[in-house]
Amino acid sequence: MTAHFATESSREVIRLLEQAGYEAVFVGGAVRDYVLGKPATDIDIATSAKPEEVKALFPMTVDIGTAHGTVLVLIDGEPIEVTTYRTEGTYSDHRRPDEVQFVTSLREDLLRRDFTMNALAMTKDGELIDLFGGQKDMARQLIRAVGHAADRFNEDALRMFRAVRFTSVLDFAIEEETFEAIRAHAAQIQYISVERLKAEMDKLFKGVNPVKAFQFIEQTTLSNHLPLFPRSLGKLNKMVPFRTAVEGWACLMLAGDFTSGAVAKAYKLSNAEKSFLSTVHQASVRRSNSLFTIDDYYHFDLAVLLLAEKWVHIIGHSSQALSEDEITSRKQSLPIQSVADLVVTGKDLMAWAELRGGRWTGEWIEKITMAVLHGKCENNSNNIKEWFLNEFKREK
Ligand code: ATP
Ligand code: MG
Question: CATH number, domain at 314?
Answer without folding.
Answer: 1.20.58
